[in-house]
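Worked example

This section walks through a single chain of length 249. The input is the sequence exactly as stored; nothing has been trimmed or padded.
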Amino acid sequence: MSGLFHNWRHPRKCYLICAVPRSGSNLLSDGLRDTGRAGRPNQFFLPSAEPNFRAAHRFAPDVNFADYVRGIVAKSATSNEVFGFKLMGFHLNPFLARLRQTGEFGGSEASDLEMLVAAFPRLRFLQITRRDKLRQAISKARAVQTGLWKVKEGKSEQADPVYDQALIAQSLFETEEEEKIWGAFFTRVDRRPFQVEYEQLCRDFKGTLTAVLDFLEIRLRWGTQIRPPATIRQGDALSDEWERRFRAG
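Given that input, the structure is written out below as C-alpha cells.
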C-alpha cells in the first residue's frame, strides 16, 4: 500500500453485482444506492469509464491500479462502510487479470477468490439475471443502436432504432456467453451468489430490494423508505413488434 491510501479504512463489507447487459443491473444498483446505506455501486473498473471516476474523485495522474482500487473503495463507500461495485460478464476476466498483475492482492498462488477478498473485504456476490432472454436481447440491440443504455427522464436516444434480426441474434448469443462466464466463475470459486431476477425486481421492487439488503446484512436508518425506481423500463410497443418479427423468422 502506498501514498495516502494506507491511512484510509477499508469498508467492513463489500459486494459485487454480477451482471450482463440489459439484465436490470441499473435498476438494482440505483435502488441500492438510493438507500444511502448500501454503497454507491457502479462500473468503477470498466476501462472506458475509469478515467471519469478518476477525474470525479480527483486521483493524481500517477495513481496506479492497485491504489485506484483502494481509493475508489474508500471514496465510494457509504458512511456505514459498505462498498458495492458492478461487473459485466465479458469484463470479469480482464478485471481479474489487472488485479493480479498489481501483485498487491496476493501472489501467483492466490486463487481468484482470495485475491478478490484481499481487495474487497467480506465480499459477497449478487447475480441479476433475466428470465426472458429474447426481450433482453431486443433491449440490448436497441441500446446498441440508440446509445441509450439507461432510460431515465431527461435522457433521449441518439439515433432511431431499426429492426435488425442479425443484431438481435448476436445480442442473444452474447448474453448466453456472458452468463456462461459467470457460471464458470462461481464454480471455480465455489460460491453461490444471491440470485435476483429482473422480472421479480420489476414486479416487487421494494420486496426484492429488501431481500437483497437482508442478504447483505444492511439495515436502513429508522424511517427510511425504499423509493420507487428512477430508471424507466424500455419495453414498449416497438419491443413487442420486434419480438413478433424475430419469432416469425
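What to look for: The chain has one domain: 3-248.
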